[in-house]
Design brief:
By secondary structure, the protein is an alpha/beta fold. Helices cover about 40% and strands about 15% of the residues. The chain binds pyridoxal-5'-phosphate (PLP). The site of pyridoxal-5'-phosphate has 14 residues, from helix 3 and helix 4.
Length: about 375
């Protein structure tokens, strides 16, 4: 991934600096309004990262020690960590082989009396099938929080991912489609959650610093609960507003490039590439390919060979349960997750990518796959 940034973002950041208001202020408010409109959510609350948005989401649900939250192990580790930040227990569920996403069956297999929430990840931008999971969880009083870190611009059943999420968490890290350097957003359709989330990100203040400034006079705030500093800056939000205006173009370009990869890879046997699921379209935040079992080479050898040839591919989506941070953490068998993380890799894909670069990637990948065993 290379972020698609230009002079417009630099000018917006510069204007924010010169305005004299650099912390959370009018630009953050404008970015929240624009983002909510774009993903068809009712409320948006800017955060310092997606990880902080996930933490606040679980905090709003009063998730605490002794509680369980179902998460995919096959995700960036922040998904599981958000549960531990609340002192609760992440419960890993296995994913679907086609999409890499949690689905109803995987979640149902691990629900218990102690389950308080499920974090459903739209992994790599591929929309998860939310409705059946919500139908399963709703009657049990289990809230579905959507980890939409990768999914800005993806579509689920004809509407933007997150449009009617109870809560969804978004990331603006440069590895995602639009970036503010670091940054995140919590969207929700519940007005009380949005209001409390705004306090939780700002030390639990009854009146935000920006409101006190606007109010003139002597407004004295109080601190209603022990909270966090998860604020976004106005410099970041100014960049975010420009990036958001480019989101449609970015998604269109990524889907064009992905279609081209699909054409080129059709000639390469023993590979399966990420595709749109039947219930929506992906923004192709990551273009992953899975090596089938009859390819004799190891994924890491393919990566090493690509790197040696100047192609910057990456391992596929990680599995939290295989990391030292989760050593000894109990979990059900996760065969699909383990195959996915072991046999997948992510190919280069960025807005400015050229036709020739895509050809190079596919040629080098083809060569790497046919690497005879005895030359490794
Ligand atoms: C990137 C990512 C995160 C973390 O986002 P940050 O903004 O870096 O905190 C969380 N979940 C998923 C699925 C991600 O891809």
């Amino acid at each position: 991934m290379k972020p698609w940034l230009g002079a417009e973002e630099a000018e917006a950041a510069s204007a924010a600096v010169l305005s004299g208001w650099v912390a959370q202020g009018p630009k953050v408010a404008a970015f929240e309004d624009a983002f909510a409109r774009r993903v068809a959510a009712v409320h948006a609350v800017a955060m310092s990262s997606c990880t902080s948005a996930l933490h606040v989401a679980l905090h709003l649900l009063d998730v605490r020690p002794g509680d369980e939250v179902v998460v995919p192990s096959l995700s960036f580790i922040a998904t599981a960590n958000a549960v531990r930040h609340c002192g609760a227990t992440p419960v890993f569920a296995d994913v679907e082989p086609e999409t890499g996403n949690l689905a109803e069956a995987g979640v149902a297999a691990v629900l218990t009396d102690r389950t308080r929430a499920v974090i459903l990840v739209h992994q790599a931008g591929v929309p998860a099938d939310v409705d059946p999971v919500r139908a399963l969880c709703g009657p049990r009083g289990v809230t579905v929080v959507e980890d939409a870190a990768c999914a800005a611009g993806s579509i689920y059943r004809g509407v933007p991912v997150g449009a009617d999420a109870e809560m969804a968490a978004w990331s603006f890290h440069p590895r995602k489609l639009i970036t503010t350097g670091e940054g995140g957003m919590l969207t929700t359709n519940h007005v009380e959650w949005a209001g409390r989330a705004k306090r939780l990100r700002e030390h639990g203040m009854s009146v935000s610093a920006a409101e006190r400034h606007r109010g003139g006079g002597a407004v004295v705030e109080s601190y209603l609960e022990t909270a966090f500093n998860y604020r976004m800056t106005d410099i970041q939000a100014a960049v975010g507003l420009v990036q958001l205006s480019k989101l449609d173009a970015i998604v269109r370009r990524r889907r064009e490039l992905a279609a081209r990869y699909h054409e080129l890879l059709a000639a390469v046997p023993a590979l399966r590439a990420v595709r749109d699921p039947e219930h929506g379209t992906t923004n192709y935040q990551s273009f992953w390919v899975m090596l089938s079992d009859d390819v004799a080479v190891e994924r890491d050898d393919v990566l090493a060979r690509l790197a040696a040839r100047g192609v910057s591919a990456r391992r596929g989506i990680m599995a939290a349960h295989l990391e030292p941070a989760y050593a000894g953490h109990p979990h059900v068998d996760l065969p699909v997750t383990e195959a996915f993380t072991r046999r997948s890799l992510i190919l280069p894909l960025y807005h400015d990518m050229t036709d020739a670069e895509q050809h190079t990637v596919v040629d080098e990948l083809t060569a790497a796959l046919h690497l005879p065993l005895n030359t490794r």
